[in-house]
Amino acid sequence: MNVAGVFAVYLGAAVAEIAGCYAFWAWLRLGRSPLWSLPGVASLIVFAALLTRVEAEAAGRAYAAYGGVYIALSLFWLWAVEGRSPDRWDATGATICLAGAAIVFFGPWS
User: Fold this and answer.
1) Which residue among 5, 29, 72, 79 has the highest number of C-beta atoms inside a 10 angstrom radius?
2) Nearest to 105 by CA among 60, 42, 53
3) Number of domains in the chain
4) Phi first, then psi: what are they for 87, rounded to 5°?
């Protein structure tokens, strides 16, 4: 799988994970119906299945590289879904995490 394909899988996985976790947040923290957990579970299954599509010799390395994408997309979710703007510290932290993810992903694996 090429870099664009891996990034697309990571983006899809991040959307699925964030949406799944948010469904539980909505139920348990925002007082929404327990039925929110059903699409939440389905979304988390999609998340887990997507991460298995990344070609890496070890799951931990695939998950570590994914972490930076997850953090950046979580801040986009904060803005797009929750209506709160990330601040400069959020942006700085996400940038550092994406740089770390790139090092893990592109670094020479032994």
Assistant:
1) 72
2) 60
3) 1
4) -100, -175
